[in-house]
Write a structure and sequence with these properties.
The protein is of the alpha+beta class. The chain folds into 2 domains: 30 residues, no CATH class; 58 residues, no CATH class. Strand 1 and strand 2 form a beta hairpin. 2% of the residues are buried. It has a two-stranded antiparallel sheet with strand order 1-2. The chain is elongated, with a radius of gyration of 20 Å. The N and C termini lie far apart (67 Å). It contains 3 helices and 2 strands, in the order ββααα. The longest helix has 15 residues.
């Protein structure tokens, strides 16, 4: 039986065969869900699906797109938001 900290639904159970031929269970943290657009709810492309501790080690350019509202809105919704901002300014 695994230790109590591994008996949660947070971990994936992966069965591996070790060199001695025995089957062992490895526990690996599950990936989080795909990031979604705050406006329309479509999945965001260009945003990594990693656990936060792994994301912290990535470069800023690898975490999210460089466009305005990148990582928050999808390209279509960000385009609409920028258009609305420009029209409000006139």
């Amino acid at each position: 039986m695994p230790r109590p900290g591994l008996r949660t639904d947070r971990f994936r159970r992966i069965i591996r065969k070790i060199p001695g031929g025995a089957l062992v269970i490895h526990y690996k943290k599950k990936k989080p869900r795909q990031a979604r657009c705050a406006s329309c709810g479509k999945p965001l492309s260009g945003v990594k699906r990693n656990i936060p501790s792994k994301v912290r080690g990535l470069a800023k350019s690898k975490k999210r797109p460089k466009r305005p509202y990148g990582g928050n809105l999808c390209p279509g919704c960000s385009r609409e938001a920028i258009k609305g901002k420009i029209l409000k300014g006139r």
